[in-house]
Backbone:
């Protein structure tokens, strides 16, 4: 098997490389992540992977593309779930909620943009199998990625090696920290940076207000905070925001 493994970052590659090697499979890592912004973050993740690959003596191919402008334009053209390739969508008002944000950013644009490139490269360079470290992260849309990989596999006539690498989430994270790898705080794009940072700001006052900072609760408060334009968060308006959202959805 000649495996090309799309690699989003060094920490996510730790468990994947380890378990694949245990199976007797030697992957070639493929870096293509124009979704990572700003440039300082892109460079930190890329350079960390370069060093890690060298240490682990695993082959790494860098498709070096810092794609802020293209990426942001691509995401906006996918607003409301429309496909950027139709060239007609000018209704870029942004997502109305997190589900729509995920649809227009991750599913409709970011995953296809990155993963199609991996299959194209594999086809051009004689790899017979493709996989991705995105299947390791518990924060990614695992089933959507799996479906997309299966569909690309059929289109390109190249095997997709599926593994549920999430099984090794804790082990991989512990090893990455022990190895001193750069651990990112958000998925990659500027939109995910905003969500992550807002989520961190909200979590502490939520706990203080006796509200469990579950992903769902954090998302509700972020949505309401963005909609209201009022960024001051305290225990009273936190409770109101969650209450209002619950009523609205009832
Ligand atoms: S949140 Fe992550 S997967 Fe989704 S568009 Fe941003 S970088 Fe891509």
Residues:
């Amino acid at each position: 098997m000649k495996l090309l493994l799309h690699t989003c970052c060094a920490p996510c590659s730790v468990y994947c490389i380890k378990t694949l090697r245990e199976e007797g499979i030697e992957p070639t890592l493929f870096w293509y992540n124009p979704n990572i912004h700003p440039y300082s973050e892109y460079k930190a993740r890329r350079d960390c992977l370069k060093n890690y690959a060298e240490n682990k003596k695993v082959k790494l191919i860098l498709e070096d593309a810092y794609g802020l402008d293209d990426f942001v334009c691509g995401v906006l053209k996918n607003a409301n779930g429309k496909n950027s390739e139709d060239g007609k969508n000018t209704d870029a008002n942004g997502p109305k909620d997190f589900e729509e944000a995920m649809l227009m950013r991750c599913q409709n644009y970011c995953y296809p943009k990155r993963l199609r490139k991996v299959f194209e490269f594999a086809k051009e360079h004689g790899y017979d199998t493709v996989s991705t470290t995105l299947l390791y992260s518990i924060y990614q849309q695992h089933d959507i990625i799996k479906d997309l990989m299966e569909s690309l596999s059929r289109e390109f006539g190249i095997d997709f090696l599926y593994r549920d690498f999430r099984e090794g989430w804790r082990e991989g994270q512990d090893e990455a920290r022990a190895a001193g790898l750069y651990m990112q705080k958000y998925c990659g794009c500027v939109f995910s940076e905003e969500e992550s940072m807002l989520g961190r700001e909200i979590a502490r006052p939520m706990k203080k207000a006796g509200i469990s900072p579950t992903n769902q609760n954090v998302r509700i408060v972020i949505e309401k905070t963005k909609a209201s334009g009022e960024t001051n968060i305290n225990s009273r308006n936190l409770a109101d925001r969650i209450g209002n959202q619950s009523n609205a959805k009832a």
